[in-house]
Amino acid sequence: MSKAWNELAARVSEMHDLHSALRLLHWDQAVMMPPEGGPGRARAIATVEGEAHRRLTDPRVAELLEAVADDPDLDEPRSASVRVLRRDHEQATKLPVDLVKALAEARGLAYQAWTRARPASDFSMLRPHLERLLSLKIQEADALGWEEARYDALLDTWEPGLRAREAETLFSDLVDGLRPLLERALEARRDPPGFLSGTYDEDKQQEVCRALAERIGFEPGSGRLDRSPHPFTSRIGPGDVRQTTRTHPRNLLGAVYAALHETGHALYEQGLPPEMVDLPAGRVPSLGMHESQSRLWENQVGRSRPFTDFLLPRLKDAFPEELGMTTPEEFFWGVNRVDRSLIRVEADEVTYNLHIALRFELEAAMLRDELGVEDLPGAWNDAMERYVGVRPPDDSDGVLQDMHWSIGAWGYFPTYTIGNLYAAAIFDRARSELGDLDAELRAGETGRLLEWLRARIHARAYTLEAKDLVQEVVGAPPTAAPLLSYLEEKFAPASMPDRRGRAPRRG
User: What is the pTM of this model?
Assistant: First the structure.
């Protein structure tokens, strides 16, 4: 390799070390840090983030990128890394270091305020922090630059290349298809099975989640599973992928499916090529692609009838009294019960994207200066009523339920739905190439599917943009059609039990 490349690689490695430290600071804040440590942690994060920004925007980085632009010795991962680093550098140079540090500190303080505000159902505790963050995010978007909509600048940081108007079209098509499907599914559903209202020991829940994560491929020697107020996954560094779930004594399925979801993220991080770990292209290409993996394992795998048939006996072993009389049919439709629920992370597959649509609408309005933070709780409740058909009784189950705005993640929410669209198309392609997976999933055997995902998705890292990777894997750009087709097949009234709980007749 050239001298210029070697110098650039050394600089990138140091920047990666700083970001590893940042991710560890954030993980500790969510999982281990005592509540009073918030202000000091926010300052520490701001200092480290400022130093990482200074190194990325160093003019020498631009000189080195220019020097290696046409280097014939660079292979695909290194050529892709030049492209990725150039984008990162150009975006970072548009942001003043003072703004970067101010955002980092404001996020730290706002997150700690959210951890107090949600259990208290007191939006006033978070409001001043959100007002500060929104002002800073508007400054960030304007510094990055935009042509059609300010939202584009922030959406592009999470889902490169996607524009708000494209997202609006995808959401419009999806919501139009989901609304009649929701009404049919609600009309055909049965009464909730008794196990949904049971009480389940939280420590046993955590044991079940850990065993389930390992069963589908999570390597505990290079990762952890802990608890936090909001489930998340973070790759701290090489050989260190950490995920969390959230337990509640009255919500066993919430913990189990959060664990499947986060394990999907963790499998992606553990599957990235080790030889690319210090390269700019050695990461996922977008949050939507990341979400495709978590939603695929949570839904297309975890909520399928074959996998629930595998899962139920394992849960009965842990909770024999609570689940002993539950039948496979009851369990499957309990897992897949369609309802107008309040909480996004617990929403069924039919209503989930309606939750995302309302968040997209609200944050886009905030960035157009059409919605103030002071009006956010009421606007949230109105949007929930319009999209999902239910009104939150308080802010804890309303505007305070997600942590995302408290960490400055405007533009993030659409990536959840983009991930769902990707997941449906990717899983459909996997089945067409691998054949029927039902027998394997019923036995809890997921190795062949994981190997396919590793080869087709994980091993590619960020050598392609997400939309190009999807095109390569499934042969088509993302649309709402594959997801709607999957949901129609699963939740069509003919496939659902009747109101008295009788299973559908199968020919």
Answer: 0.92
